[in-house]
Design brief:
Layout: E1 5-9, H1 14-25, E2 29-34, E3 52-56, E4 71-74, H2 81-86, H3 88-109, E5 112-118, H4 145-165, E6 169-174, E7 177-178, H5 189-199, E8 203-206, E9 212-213, E10 216-217, H6 218-230, E11 237-239, E12 245-246, H7 247-258, E13 264-267, H8 282-288, H9 296-311
Parallel strand pairs: 1-2, 1-4, 2-3, 4-5, 5-6, 6-11, 7-10, 8-13
Antiparallel strand pairs: 9-12
Helix pairs in contact: 1-6, 3-4, 5-7, 5-9, 7-9
């Protein structure tokens, strides 16, 4: 019997590379596609020699993959505020055209389809915690709108292919995920704080630090995504850790765990920055039998160790 075969767009990115590695470990063949706009070949170099094929390609153009495909995981997109503020048009194009091309591949191959959506579809939420039934509070013309609306459009396109073409399509709404292979200059809170603390620099907290995030370790997220991929669910499902922390608490924990002498400094809060973030994971628990298992200390320990190697600091 042939191995099941998965295509992952954005395979050289932080989450995409972990998905590729875990699926290979579970006996899948993997075709990884990435244009390396924000991805890094260093994330997937260790997969050489396994049943892994890498294709450098921009998925806003037609995607051709020879042979059978069982699942398409569409993970291609800039994903940090630094990226999508610098690459607004590319972000919109991969959310719209890239999703269309990835869905076209799934339709042509009779494959399942899973799209990486985001908690950002909820915007700066007026509902807390956020359930999948919440429609969100998004500013379409603000600086973050290029990412938020790209993902909202991508969800609409995915549901249209499911309803009109019968594609077995799934939507995972990812909440703040962290772990090894995040970029040092990613721009999000955890890599920023770790890099600054390891260098002994001031740790920059935007706003008063009382805004909240819910941090999910990468291995927990990947487990949830694969459970969704294998399920019969077609409605959106939140995958994230419901433990809510303030940004200042996260910064202080990282300073303590790195043994840093860094101090916290405050800067102005960026436009439309969400004040709260916490997933309601009732669907994930009941439909997928999933919930996170990695503690914050355990996950941050692994992530700090990775950043020490990237920054070459002790």
């Amino acid at each position: 019997m042939a191995k099941p075969r998965v295509v992952i767009t954005g395979a050289a990115g932080f989450i995409g590379s972990h998905l590729a590695e875990t699926l290979l470990d579970r006996g899948y063949g993997v075709v990884g596609i990435d244009n390396l706009l924000t991805g890094d070949m260093a994330n997937i170099e260790h997969l050489a020699g396994r049943d892994f094929v890498f294709v450098k390609h921009d998925v806003t153009n037609y995607i051709y993959v020879e042979g059978p495909v069982d699942v398409v995981l569409h993970w291609a997109s800039p994903a940090s505020p630094i990226d999508y503020l610098e690459l607004p048009i590319q972000t919109l194009k991969v959310g719209a055209l890239g999703t269309h091309k990835a869905l076209g591949l799934a339709k042509a191959k009779g494959a399942r389809f899973v799209i990486a959506s985001t908690s950002e579809v909820y915007g700066d939420p007026l509902e807390h915690p956020q359930k999948e039934t919440y429609w969100g509070n998004v500013n379409p013309v603000g600086p973050r709108g290029v990412y938020d609306e790209a993902k909202r459009f991508a969800e609409a396109m995915t549901v249209a292919y499911h309803r009109y073409h019968g594609v077995d399509a799934k939507i995972v709404r990812i909440f703040n995920t962290y772990g090894p292979r995040m970029r040092v200059r990613d721009g999000r809170a955890v890599p920023n704080f770790i890099a600054q603390a390891l260098r002994g620099e001031d740790v920059t907290v935007y706003g008063d630090g009382r805004q909240t995030r819910s941090l999910c370790y990468i291995s927990d997220l990947v487990d949830g995504v694969i459970r969704l991929m294998l399920s019969s669910a077609n409605e959106p499902i939140n995958i994230g850790n419901p433990q809510e922390l303030t940004i200042e608490d996260i910064a202080r924990t990282i300073i303590r765990m790195t043994g840093s002498s860094s101090r916290i400094v405050h800067k102005a809060l960026p436009v439309d920055d969400p004040k709260v973030r916490r997933p309601d994971i009732t669907r994930a628990r009941t439909i997928l039998g999933w919930e996170p298992t990695i503690t914050l200390e355990e996950g941050l320990g692994q992530t700090i160790a990775y950043f020490r190697t990237k920054l070459a600091v002790r």
